[in-house]
Amino acid sequence: MRKALHPQQASSVRSIERPPFCISRDRYTITVALLLSGIGSCPAEDAAEKANERMQEVVIQAKRQAADEEVTREVRKNLTSDPWIFAEHVTITTENGVVRLEGFVGDTGERFRILRRCRKIPGTRRVVDALEVVSNDPDGG
């Protein structure tokens, strides 16, 4: 004969007694969770491994886009084609893309115009200014 249980006691008894399929479901959940946690690797670990690997040295060998003679020729052509520049007193030399300008100019406007035009020529890496401004002002100013 069964004893009548108090409702609170009955609920505690029911929670303790589990059907067999609940236990296997818990085990199944734990097993699946463990398997899934081991499948994917950690991105941080992958990045650390790649950082530890020594990268191969990369050597870039490129030829100059324009030879120095071509740059000098282009600068000379550009300066003589401008009607505001008297380029007869300007010496142009180019070495490794560095254009050096030496000589005399009439005023600072001509000097800056020459420098601006030289900087726009393809193959010019740098322009060295060694130009001197000679004033032909009769008043000496």
Would you tell me the structural class of the helices and strands?
alpha+beta
Sequence stretches where pLDDT stays below 50 over 5 or more residues: none
Please list the strands of the largest sheet in the order they lie side by side: 1-2-3
Main sheet?
3 strands, mixed
* Number of separate strands: 3
Helix content: 40-55%
The dominant shape is rod-shaped
Distance between termini?
Answer: 131 Å
CATH topology of the domain at 68-133: Histidine-containing Protein, Chain: A
CATH domain class of the domain at 68-133: Alpha Beta
Quote the average pLDDT: 77
| Approximate strand percentage | 15-25%
Rg measurement, Å: 43 Å
- Number of helical elements: 5
Order of helices and strands: HHHHEEHE
CATH architecture title of the domain at 68-133: 2-Layer Sandwich
